[in-house]
Each structure stands twice: as structure tokens, then as C-alpha cells.
């Protein structure tokens, strides 16, 4: 194998593909990055769960394949000067040249590397920026406890031209609806995708204008019991196995009627929460007292440090006091795509719903549901 490629092109492709390298590979070859040079250069990584692949244009003098240490290759390429890169393989050694720099890498056994899963059938397409924004909005509510694997995923519900993304860790819930272009107008599916993989893939594919989503749901293929989902755009593609397990019936946490509604300018509200939370001990809440025209925030009590701050608020309803985990509250305020935060309440002991200011064209496409903390006494 022998090829030439521009340094920046190679660096981007290697960095993208290295995303799927396992931190602790089950077998040594999984630490490798597979390079296949033909009419173009295809780089691949796979850890039996997640695969990543990138294709870039190169000048190929001799076609072939090689498997080298992925992390070492990524570190080397990242450090190279802005000069053309030449790679060649002879026997068990691969030589990389760039300007006056020459690196020799030992190859891994290519024939022991697992075959990457094929991309499942195309399901539809969506704007890359729209997908990345929507996923980041819901991922903040995904669980991080591996003992509850279903909650570490983002649920994707597909109904025609609407995709609903849902995540919850039992303390908060994020729901985002977006429109896409399905291959089949009547398509319907509900799958659970690992949140970490989904966030990484969506963020990394924003260099493309559009992302193609490919899907093989559980039961579609007898050889893929868990199902598989793939994302492709700009010469890059990634696949991951879907999560199993039963997802909570989140619809019951989405109230349709409210007894009180507050509207605040989002940025000053968030800054006030940050300041007051400085005196809050770990796992203690920030208390919010809403009344006509204002919100009073408090934290700390008794012999502890205390903080109080008042901000302007439009409030419709009877005076209300409620308490939240300050970080969870800030996560929701940072996720809304609006300068105005709208907080809707039923009772002080029931979840509150944070959205952007509702327009005249219907309900908001993003909702963040936050469980209150019951204060002692």
C-alpha cells in the first residue's frame, strides 16, 4: 500500500475515525485503525458496539490495506506540519513521511480485524445543524448510571415527518420535536440510542449540510436482535447498536394544564440562579418564591451561608414557592432556544415545565420537565 494525501484532510479523517476507539479494547486489534487505499482512502474503527468510518480523496500509487495503532496514528498526524503526507507499507511496518519527519509504525494483524457492520436501510434525512441542536437539548437529561442502561439512551420516536427525541434520568425529562424527510411518508418506529454516541455523532457531522439516518429496528433483522442505527454525511458514517429495555412512560409527566405561569428573561434568571447557588451545599436546592411581578431566589439556611436575590418576573397565578436542584434548573435554562424562559406549574410538589416563550403558531417544540425538591418541613 502506498498513497499521498494532504495533511489537513488526513488529520480530520483520522480524528473523526478515532472517536470509536475503545478505551480498554477487549482484544488488541480493536485498538487499531484500519486504512484501505484504493480510489480513495477509507479509515475505519470498530469496538463491536460503535463503528466510525471516513473516506477522503488521495493519490494512490499502490492499493492495499493496513491496521495500525489508532491512538498513535492520531497523535502523530495531529503533530505534523502543513505538508503533504505519504504513507507506505512493507511487510510488518508502515512508514509515514511528512516534510523531513519520518515515522515507522508496526502493523497489527489485518486479518484478525472484525468486519464493520453494514449501514442499515436509509430511513430519512435531516439538516445537520437541526439534528445536533435537538440532540444537545435532550441529552442533558439522559441518565449516567450504567446500572440503568435504558435511561442512558435517547429515545427516538418516528411518526411520518416528525421525530420526537426524549431523555430522562428520573429527575428531569427533556422532549424535542423536529421535522425530517422520511423515505416512507408513513414510517413509524421507536428506538433507544446510546446518548453518548448520539451526541458525539451529531456534533461531528455538522460539517455536512444534511445527515442521512439509517435504521434497522429490533426485529427487522434476525441477525441484529438489538437493532442498529447509522448516521452518514460529508463522507463520514457511524453506526451503533440500539439499547434494549423498557423505557418509562414519560407522557404522564407532561401536564396539559397549568395553575400558574411565569415568564422571565432567561439570561438574568440563569445568572441569579448561579449566584444564589454559590452558598448551596451539595444536593441542597435553590428555593424560588413567585409572586406578582417578581421572583425571589434563596439558598442556605440556619447557621449556613445564605443568599437572597430578586429578579423581575411576569407571573400569572397564586403566589407559589418551589425548590429545584440548581444545576438541573440551569441545564434547562441553557437548553431553551429563546431569550425568554417560560416556567409553568401545577402545584409546588409536581413537575414544572420550562420552555421558550410560546409563539402563536402552536406549542413549543422543546420542553424540559423538572421535578421539584421537597424542602424539609
How would you describe this structure to a colleague?
There is one protein chain. The chain has helices at residues 7-17, 70-79, 128-139, 195-204, 266-277, 326-335, and strands spanning 2-5, 32-37, 40-46, 50-57, 59-62, 64-69, 85-90, 93-98, 101-106, 122-127, 153-159, 162-168, 172-179, 181-182, 188-194, 210-216, 228-233, 236-241, 260-265, 286-291, 294-299, 307-312, 314-316, 320-324, 340-345, 352-356, 366-370. It has 377 residues and is an alpha+beta fold. Helix 1 runs antiparallel to helix 2 and helix 5 packs antiparallel against helix 6 (326-335). The N and C termini lie far apart (73 Å). The model has no long low-confidence stretch (mean pLDDT 92).
Would you tell me the structural class of the helices and strands?
Answer: alpha+beta
Q: Which architecture of the largest domain would the CATH scheme give at its second level?
A: Roll
The CATH fourth-level homologous superfamily of the largest domain = DNA Polymerase III, subunit A, domain 2
The overall pLDDT average reads 92
Q: In the CATH hierarchy, what is the class of the largest domain?
A: Alpha Beta
- Strand % is 35-45%
Total strand segments: 27
Secondary structure: helix percent: 10-25%
The strands making up the biggest β-sheet line up spatially as 6-2-3-4-18-17-16-10-14
Q: How many separate domains?
A: 3
Largest beta sheet, briefly?
Answer: 9 strands, antiparallel
Radius of gyration: 25 Å
Provide the CATH topology of the largest domain: DNA Polymerase III, Chain A, domain 2
Global morphology: elongated
Regions with pLDDT < 50 over 5+ consecutive residues? none
The number of helical elements comes to 6
Distance between the termini: 73 Å
Amino acid at each position: 500500500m502506498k498513497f499521498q494525501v494532504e495533511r489537513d484532510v488526513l488529520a480530520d479523517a483520522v480524528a473523526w475515525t478515532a472517536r470509536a476507539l475503545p478505551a480498554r479494547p477487549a482484544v488488541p486489534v480493536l485498538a487499531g485503525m484500519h486504512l484501505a487505499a484504493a480510489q480513495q482512502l477509507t479509515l475505519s474503527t470498530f469496538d463491536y458496539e460503535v463503528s466510525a468510518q471516513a473516506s477522503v480523496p488521495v493519490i494512490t500509487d499502490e492499493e492495499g490495506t493496513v491496521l495500525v495503532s489508532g491512538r498513535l496514528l492520531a497523535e502523530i498526524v495531529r503533530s505534523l506540519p502543513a505538508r503533504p503526507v505519504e504513507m507506505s507499507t512493507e511487510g510488518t511496518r508502515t512508514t509515514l513521511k511528512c516534510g523531513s519527519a519520518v515515522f515507522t509504525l508496526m502493523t497489527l494483524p489485518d486479518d484478525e480485524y472484525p468486519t464493520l457492520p453494514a449501514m442499515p436501510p436509509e430511513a430519512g434525512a435531516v439538516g445537520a445543524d437541526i439534528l445536533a441542536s435537538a440532540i444537545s437539548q435532550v441529552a442533558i437529561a439522559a441518565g449516567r448510571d450504567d446500572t440503568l442502561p435504558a435511561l442512558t439512551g435517547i429515545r427516538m420516536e418516528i411518526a411520518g415527518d416528525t421525530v420526537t427525541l426524549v431523555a430522562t434520568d428520573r429527575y428531569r425529562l427533556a422532549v424535542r420535536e423536529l421535522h425530517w424527510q422520511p423515505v416512507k411518508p408513513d414510517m413509524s418506529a421507536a428506538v433507544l440510542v446510546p446518548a453518548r454516541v448520539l451526541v458525539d455523532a451529531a456534533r461531528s457531522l455538522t460539517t455536512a449540510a444534511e445527515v442521512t439516518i439509517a435504521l434497522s429496528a429490533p426485529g427487522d433483522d434476525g441477525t441484529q436482535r438489538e437493532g442498529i442505527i447509522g448516521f452518514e454525511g460529508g463522507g463520514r458514517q457511524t453506526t451503533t447498536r440500539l439499547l434494549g429495555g423498557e423505557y418509562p412512560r414519560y407522557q404522564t409527566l407532561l401536564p396539559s394544564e397549568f395553575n400558574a405561569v411565569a415568564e422571565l428573561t432567561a439570561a438574568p434568571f440563569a445568572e441569579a440562579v448561579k449566584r444564589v447557588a454559590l452558598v448551596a451545599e451539595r444536593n441542597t436546592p435553590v428555593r424560588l418564591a413567585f409572586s406578582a411581578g417578581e421572583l425571589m431566589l434563596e439558598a442556605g439556611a440556619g447557621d449556613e451561608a445564605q443568599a437572597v436575590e430578586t429578579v423581575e418576573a411576569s407571573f400569572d397565578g397564586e403566589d407559589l414557592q418551589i425548590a429545584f436542584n440548581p444545576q438541573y434548573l440551569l441545564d434547562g435554562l441553557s437548553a431553551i432556544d429563546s431569550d425568554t424562559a417560560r416556567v409553568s406549574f401545577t402545584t409546588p410538589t409536581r413537575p414544572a415545565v420550562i420552555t421558550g416563550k410560546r409563539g402563536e403558531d402552536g406549542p413549543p417544540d422543546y420542553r424540559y420537565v423538572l421535578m421539584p425538591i421537597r424542602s424539609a418541613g
